[in-house]
Write a structure and sequence with these properties.
two-stranded antiparallel ribbon
């Protein structure tokens, strides 16, 4: 169970890297959340959208796959 959004979720996307460990979700609550699917924890909330977030996408070209580095950067693309 993933708890965090305060309204319906319309879009989800699994990360194309790190064995699809991360999930991105967009909601009617006007937020995007980044989740760790192994722990079901919300890692970050992206606020500032003025309307419902209908879809999300994670760029496969901009990821940090350095296993020796604990800094897991995830980059998003907007359209």
């Amino acid at each position: 169970t993933f708890n965090g959004h305060t309204n319906k979720v319309y879009g989800i996307e699994f990360s194309p890297f790190n064995d699809s460990r991360y999930l991105c979700s967009g909601s009617y609550d006007k937020t995007i959340r980044l989740w760790d699917i192994e722990t079901s924890k919300s890692l970050h909330v992206f606020n500032g959208h003025e309307n419902t977030v209908w879809c999300v996408d994670i760029s496969p070209l901009q990821s940090n796959n350095n296993k020796d580095d604990n800094n897991n950067n995830v980059f998003f693309k907007t359209q």
